[in-house]
Amino acid sequence: MILDTNALSAFADEQPAILTILAQVEQLAIPVIVLGEYRYGIAKSRHKTRYLSWLDGLLADCTILDVTETTTLHYADISIELRGAGTPIPINDLWIAALCRQHRLSVLSRDHHFDLVSGSQRLDW
User: What is the SS3 assignment for 1?
Assistant: First the structure.
């Protein structure tokens, strides 16, 4: 399962509903895009030390998904599909959706626009 930034934040804040879902997941994947967004949020936080420590511990148990040439093919396909339907999504989420499709993984996110992407499944908490 891929974590979106809002899921990663909820996990860090130990929201009970997300902890229940994640307890059933064998492997967590974090797109490098999400990692960048989350680190940006940490940099602005007054709880920087706590979140950095938590993130360091989590990263040891997660797969970081990098953007590759294959990812760019999925990115282009999804972008064409969504623009053709008149439903473009934010660029960072387009990259996350491309990684979902590439790796055939669902995304845990509160962002409903992931529902517009064929070939991927969004889970909520």
Answer: coil
